[in-house]
Structure formats: C-alpha cells, structure tokens
Amino acid sequence: MSKFFKALLRFLPVMALTYLGLLAVTFFIGRVVPVDPVLAVLGDRATEDQMAQMREAMGLNKPLWAQFASYVSKVAQGDFGTSVLTARPVLDDIIRVFPATLELATMGIIIGVGVGVPLGVWAAVRRGKFADQLVRVMGLIGYSVPIFWLGLMGLVLFYAKLDWVSGPGRIGIAFAYSVPTVTGLVLVDSALAGEWQAFRSAISHLALPAGLLGYFSLAYISRMTRSFMLKELSQEYIVAARAKGLSEATIIWRHALRNAAVPLVTVIALSYAGLLEGSVLTETVFAWPGLGLYITNSLQNADMNAVLGGTLVVGSIFIALNLFSDLMYRLLDPRTR
C-alpha cells in the first residue's frame, strides 16, 4: 500500500500542471470567443456607464495576467461565477445536473463493458470466421453512424412505433415530484423511497439513451478487447497451457483475459470519461437534464461562465480517470512498477 501512495505522490505534480494547463485553455477560450460577457449580463440596452461599471466589477479592465490569476484563485475556491441563464452559482447548477449525466454514463459503460468485452473475446477466439466479421461490422457501425441519428431513429422505432420505452426526459411527469432527492440519481432515490412505479418509469426512460451510449462504447471496447486478446493468444504461455492439457475455457478466461485486462482498464476508464463528457448530443436528443444539455443551453445563450465551468468539470473528470487508470495499471501489472 505504501508503494501505491508513493506512486500517487509522483503523479500529483503532473496532475497539478495538467490542471493548470486546463485552466489556462478555458480562460483564454473565454477571452477570444466573440461574446461580450458584460453585454450578456446587462443586455444590449445598457448605457456606456453601466457597461463600464459592470466591466470594472467583473475585473475585465485589469491586465490579462491579473485576470488569469483572479480566475485561478476563484476556481481553487470552487467559484465558477454566476450563470446568466439561471442567475445561480455555476457550481450549484453543475452539482444539480451532474447526477443525471453520471447515471446515464454509468449505465452506458456497464452495457459497454458487459457486452463489449465478451464480444471482443469471442471475436478473437473466432478470428477470421463469421463471428469475428460480425463483431467487427457491429463496431464499424458504432463508429460510423452519428449518435444523434441513432437516437432519433431509436425514438421513432422503439418509442413512437413500438411503444417499448418511454420518450424524452428522465422520468414520467406523474412522478417528477414524488421522489425525494437524496443522491440525485433517480434510480437510487426511487428505490430508497420505495417508489417502484417511479423506478420502473425511470428505467423505461433510461433504457434507450443508455443503450445507445452503451452501443457506442462497446464498439470501441470490443475492438480493443479483440486486439489485446489476439496478442495474448499468440504468446508462448498459451502454447504451454495447451500442452499441459488445460481446457480452452480456462486458457481464454483465466489466463489470456486476465493479462489482457491490464491495458483494458485504461480503455474502459477513458471510455467512461468519454461518455461523461461526450453525451451532449444524446442528452440534447432525449431532453436529458444533465451536464451536456446544460452546457449546450448555456452556449446557445452566451452564458460563458456556465460553459467554462462545465468544461472545467469535464477536463477534471478526464484528469482524474487518467490518474486512476495509471494507478490501476501499476497495481495490476508488477512489470510497470
């Protein structure tokens, strides 16, 4: 365990520099976009004096380096500014909407890993055969077809035509205010409250967007699993295991997949991060009240504080999951220590 903490301490300076770079990028993006934050707050009917006073109050009359220092100081204190759209602190808005994205992305990655890994193993074992070609075609479709188009077609088929799932939104209107908010995760909160009708409604709303994101992630996970498994199945220890008379199932699942799981951890972690930040189009199509929809609405309304705050959260997720995958890589593979 001491080695784990030593590895963590070695990563902290890199993590701090990465986060500082993220702050610099978001800050300068906020300064070069053709949106006047003063105009967004006061409107186009404000007088020159009012605009000058607001510019001074927002610190926009200071040198750029002083503005950046102030920006870093405020972010370090959890102050992302106030949203023009909601008139509330951006951090409070993000805390309110993020559980919806977390719930959607978590279900998506569970589907992606639960289906993608076995498909990748199956394709590697059946290399060059029909099963391999089928899995590769499924992955190619998941890569090639725009996710918003799949979402719209899914709504037309499974909601409008077949009525198998519920439509846009996170839960039925009848249950919108009947479930007390504890964690912000509707499935968890409805289960804790014993509201099983609301739980079924939430599942029905979640099934299609989560399945769509799951398919999007399994396309990548199955492809990488296949690649890692092919590499492991060609190693000499596999030949030795077969020579000892071990069953094919034991060789594949206990030996080959166990070694392939080491680099697969990084793939899964980055896929999860991609779902947490890349569900913007999915949330827009399904009117899912998460971080992606919040950033989209803020961008359409020139609410740059909210846009940059959401961008920082997304960047922080990537940094944290990268750190987690690197640490897990060291724990699972002694050769990297």
TrEMBL record:
<dbReference type="Pfam" id="PF00528">
    <property type="entry name" value="BPD_transp_1"/>
</dbReference>
<feature type="transmembrane region" description="Helical">
    <location>
        <begin position="202"/>
        <end position="221"/>
    </location>
</feature>
<feature type="transmembrane region" description="Helical">
    <location>
        <begin position="137"/>
        <end position="160"/>
    </location>
</feature>
<keyword id="KW-0472">Membrane</keyword>
<feature type="transmembrane region" description="Helical">
    <location>
        <begin position="7"/>
        <end position="29"/>
    </location>
</feature>
<dbReference type="Pfam" id="PF19300">
    <property type="entry name" value="BPD_transp_1_N"/>
</dbReference>
<feature type="transmembrane region" description="Helical">
    <location>
        <begin position="104"/>
        <end position="125"/>
    </location>
</feature>
<protein>
    <submittedName>
        <fullName>ABC transporter permease</fullName>
    </submittedName>
</protein>
<keyword id="KW-1133">Transmembrane helix</keyword>
<keyword id="KW-0813">Transport</keyword>
<feature type="domain" description="ABC transmembrane type-1">
    <location>
        <begin position="98"/>
        <end position="325"/>
    </location>
</feature>
<dbReference type="InterPro" id="IPR035906">
    <property type="entry name" value="MetI-like_sf"/>
</dbReference>
<keyword id="KW-0812">Transmembrane</keyword>
<feature type="transmembrane region" description="Helical">
    <location>
        <begin position="261"/>
        <end position="286"/>
    </location>
</feature>
<feature type="transmembrane region" description="Helical">
    <location>
        <begin position="306"/>
        <end position="329"/>
    </location>
</feature>
<dbReference type="InterPro" id="IPR045621">
    <property type="entry name" value="BPD_transp_1_N"/>
</dbReference>
<keyword id="KW-1003">Cell membrane</keyword>
<comment type="similarity">
    <text>Belongs to the binding-protein-dependent transport system permease family.</text>
</comment>
<dbReference type="InterPro" id="IPR000515">
    <property type="entry name" value="MetI-like"/>
</dbReference>
